[in-house]
Amino acid sequence: MNYSTIKKVVAGSLLTLAAAAASAQDSTSTSTSAATVFGGRAQYRTWSIGVTGGVLSPVIGFGSNDYNDWDANFGYGLYIKKQLAPSFGLKLDAHRGKLSGTYDTHDGRTPLPAGGRADFSTDLNYAVSLKGVVNVGTVSFLSRTKNVGFFVQAGAGLTGYEPNDDGNSRKELFIPVGAGISFRLGDVVSLNLGYDANFLDADNLDGTWTGGTSNKDKWSYGYAGLEFALGSSSKPVLQWSNPVALMYDELKDPTLRQEVEALKTRVSTLENTVNQLSADADGDGVSDRFDKCPGTPAGTVVDGAGCPIQFPAADSSVAGAYPNIQFEFDSSVLKTSSYPILDKVSSDLRANSSSLVTLEGHASAEGTEAYNMNLSRDRANSVKTYLVNSGVDANRVAVKAFGESRPIASNSTEEGRVQNRRVEIKK
């Protein structure tokens, strides 16, 4: 088959396929699916296979070649592709055919070196490569369904060929770089038109070596092909999905809006519950839900149940008859209900400059003895810090820690453990 015949056949085929693709855009159906923005690749068809046919030639659109008169020969191939995202996929590609050309010196070209051939014919037995394919213009703001897309691709591969029918097979690495356009014909089939420039890592594709790394051989493959999506037709093809349209549909979905409203209701209910749990009508520091003595007057010193604490009579000489300072589990932070007691102690100490007090820290029996010893010391120091900050000389306040060694109630019940988490104020 000569070049003129091939050119006419290929040109006619490409025009016919392009016309069919253009007319198919108006009648293309769209698969319905429940695809979501973050639903993953499992909700799409991501595998496809393709077949190609076109023109092989020992020349590319740029760069030098050993033979200036080249022939156009028929080539064909196939591939399998895995789409990883709407904009990117991996393709295992292969093609084969024949490459041939003539070295013509009529245009003033330097004659071939000694031993060179006037023409060559090489059987390209295979050219297998792994390519990354980038789809350009994945996001479309003009139409919900994409029917036309452009792509660029590049990778690396291995080729085997026999120059000049000499029976000597060669294997070399090559780099394919290409671009093309895709037309979506339906839910399964798409048409691809592309051009690949292939850079061989050798200078023996044509059986002639001219020397120098810049003279490494090249060939091109211009093709048309059909690609078939694999998998269930109920799923859309990832390559043709429009992320913008998908996001719009998901945000507009009435089901999603209902879920959002339901979530708002649950949050509101939770906030109301928290407000109820934290409500303290009498301001004694104990939530109404746990307050066993509601309505205590403002400023009343209460215990953990919200009931008033009865103060024994005490004079200004610090007689040591102060209520214990209670603490929460595993905490050395003073409770606001303790402030009136401590203010009374501070007032008595400042009124009698010769008085001294000892703060004895205690803990309940949870945890290790060493941990509880440190915790009881921290509790006593918290009380001391409060007194010192209120104007009491630090030298008049001593601190002792007893850990869990001196309980005043049983540690086998929570009520008893609550009483044991304390600091005693002694003269």
In short:
The chain is an alpha+beta fold. The protein has helices at residues 3-27, 243-252, 254-278, 339-351, 369-389, 414-420, and strands spanning 47-57, 69-70, 73-85, 88-102, 119-136, 148-163, 170-184, 189-200, 218-229, 325-326, 357-361, 397-401, 422-426.
Overview of the structural elements:
- This protein is an alpha+beta fold.
- 24% of the residues lie in helices and 31% in strands.
- The protein has helices at 3-27, 243-252, 254-278, 339-351, 369-389, 414-420, and strands spanning 47-57, 69-70, 73-85, 88-102, 119-136, 148-163, 170-184, 189-200, 218-229, 325-326, 357-361, 397-401, 422-426.
- Helix 4 (339-351) packs across helix 5.
- Residues 13-32 and 313-320 have low confidence and may be disordered.
